[in-house]
Specification:
Length: 358
């Protein structure tokens, strides 16, 4: 097993095992001032990947961890496996997915644990309210987090089918691209709360917009259309203006509503604006959303450090635009160095948070 060794900016109180996520899984052992990460297991629903995951967990268990940390999601194979162990010898900690993303990036960057604004954008992760999160702004340190802002929730019509059939996501946002009979069926599903969980996922927003701009209804794998959309946007000359969106405050949270974006994109498609331009304007809009939300949160919290993590930031154009806009507003911004921003860093984040909660 090829182990990745990462120096962390503190001495761990105990030896801790982080069991990681469902996809892009790694297992992490935190001991002393270092974290040791296993190779990536692409998808734990694949028997070969699960076998390698099990083998790596057993290897790290020989190092006698006192605490095991795993994801809040009860259906992740990593979580199920850990819960199936004889846990009398270990203390078990359940860690929220997006908090783990931010904590991993903080640890990698040598953060001493001051509060940050964490921007965690991905496909999905179980939230503290039992809903599916994925477009999150957290105020957090290594120990605790508060959800400060998030993308407006939409129903995933048909559950996980929406990942490979992004027309369902587009229908949820706009009611378009679907015949009336199908739309009635989907509305009925949602009204009786059948297989249509609410989600604030930024990854799924990219899928919906890509489906609209590219005119495609299906994908062969998660984020396929979003990857195609990024490629298309790179073909455009940079433009000064993105699309409008709404930010409203409900109780103590800001809700980001991209509905106005869809209306303008539809209008631009009708006037035959080049699709490259529309794709670029959408990417710029999401980066502007990050900038505006972080500015609102800085005003309220006096926090100037922003941490970007989650699989959506594998989009190089979005990352570059976000860094540029945040830099212009004098934010101090941190991104991943040695690890990917995808779920391969989750196990490190889990172990770090468990350490500060122990």
């Amino acid at each position: 097993m090829e182990i990745k060794k990462i120096k962390v900016p503190f001495k761990a109180k105990k030896t801790i095992l982080g069991a990681g996520s469902q996809a892009k899984n790694t297992v992490c052992l935190l001991r002393g001032g270092f974290a040791y990460l296993s190779p990536v297991h692409q998808d734990l629903s694949n028997p070969k990947d699960f076998f390698n995951f099990e083998k790596d967990v057993k290897y790290f268990l020989k190092k006698k961890p006192e605490i095991i940390a795993c994801d809040l999601h009860p259906d992740y194979q990593s979580t199920k496996y850990i819960k199936g162990l004889q846990l009398k010898a270990y203390s078990l900690k359940l860690i929220q997915h997006h908090h783990a993303h931010i904590a991993a990036c903080m640890a990698e960057n040598g953060s001493k644990g001051k509060k940050v604004i964490g921007v965690a954008f991905d496909g999905t992760g179980l939230g503290a309210d039992n809903k599916l999160w994925g477009g999150e702004f957290l105020i957090c340190d290594y120990k605790n987090f508060q959800r400060a802002a998030h993308l407006k929730e939409i129903p995933l019509l048909g559950g996980e089918r929406a990942i490979l059939e992004p027309w369902r996501l587009l229908a949820a946002w706009t009611g378009r691209g679907i015949d009336k009979k199908k739309w009635r069926v989907l509305k009925k599903m949602f009204s009786v709360n059948f297989n249509s969980p609410l989600s604030s996922s930024m990854g799924r927003l990219f899928d919906a917009v890509a489906s609209l701009i590219l005119g495609k209804t299906k994908a062969n794998f998660e984020a396929e259309l979003a990857i195609e959309l990024e490629r298309l946007a790179h073909c455009s000359l940079p433009m000064a203006q993105g699309y409008k969106f709404k930010i409203t405050k409900i109780k103590n949270e800001y809700i980001l509503d991209p509905s106005p974006m869809f209306r303008r994109i539809i209008a631009d498609l009708r006037t035959k604006m080049p699709k490259e331009k529309i794709a670029y304007r959408f990417h710029l809009s999401v980066a502007t959303m990050i900038r505006k939300t972080c500015t609102l949160l800085r005003k309220k919290s006096k926090i100037n450090q922003v941490v970007l993590s989650g699989g959506v930031f594998q989009n190089k154009l979005l990352l570059a635009l976000s860094l540029d806009l945040l830099g212009k507003d004098n934010f101090e911004v941190f991104t991943h160095k040695n690890l990917s921003c995808n779920d391969s860093g989750i196990s490190l984040g889990q172990a770090v948070i468990a350490n500060f909660r122990s």
